[in-house]
Amino acid sequence: MKLDLIERGVALILEGMGINRADRNYIDTPERYARFIQEMFERKNVEYATFPEDYTDFILLRGHTMYSLCPHHLLPVEFQASVAYIPNREVLGLSKLVRVLDEVNTEPLLQERFTAAVVDTIEANCPGVKGVACLVDGQHGCTKIRGVRSAGRFVTYHLHGEFETNLDLQRRFFDLCRT
Question: In angstroms, rounded to a whole number, what is the distance separating the alpha carbons of residues 34 and 32?
């Protein structure tokens, strides 16, 4: 990540807005914003530790709150993400489901792409899983504070394997995501 370029860009935005950069409230703003971007989108190295276990039902992380930026306007997006998988004789460490969400959140990304990428990441790193499901409920700054000014939430989901073919499993997944 090129923090110096981000800082220069923010300084130009402030200049374009007519902000007095000598004002003590703005002196360090470009640097602070660059650190914020680095923190939000830093790449994480995830080790997908698995443990032998004959657990046959799905494992669900429900309602994990995370933040990103919209790629069209660079405005904040708040996600509530739920992800589930069906293990095949090995289970992931529970924290790995949160880490997958963080691993995929490395740049401003469409909610639809984010949702599918979570499923793809689990499948790519956990061979043999019987199914993966991801549901993302997002509130987007670009529709909340500009344009249509709606506080509405947008829901996307992506299903693979048994979650795609087994309607009872789908129903249980969606029901548990709601509670």
Answer: 5
Angle of the 111-125 helix axis to the 95-104 helix axis, nearest 10? 130
Query: Residue 30 and residue 9: Cα distance in Å, rounded?
Result: 8
Q: What is residue 86's predicted lDDT score, i.e. its pLDDT?
A: 97
- What DSSP letter does each residue of 82-146 carry, written as one string? EEEEE-SSEEE-THHHHHHHHHH-SS---HHHHHHHHHHHHHHHSTT-SEEEEEEEEEEHHHHSS
Asked whether the predicted pLDDT for residue 43 surpasses 90, the reply is: no
Which two three-digit tokens encode residue 48? 């997908």
Domains of the chain: 3-41 (no CATH), 50-178 (3.30.1130.10)
Lay out the sheet containing 59-69: strands in order across. Answer: 59-69, 76-86, 131-140, 154-161
Contact 137, 155 (CB under 8 A): yes
Using alpha carbons only, give the angle 88, 66, 26 rounded to the nearest 5 degrees. 150
Q: What is the pLDDT of residues 93-111, one digit of tens each?
A: 999 999 999 999 999 999 9
Helix axes 29-41, 3-16, angle to 10 degrees: 130
Q: Which two tokens stand for residue 136?
A: 């993302």
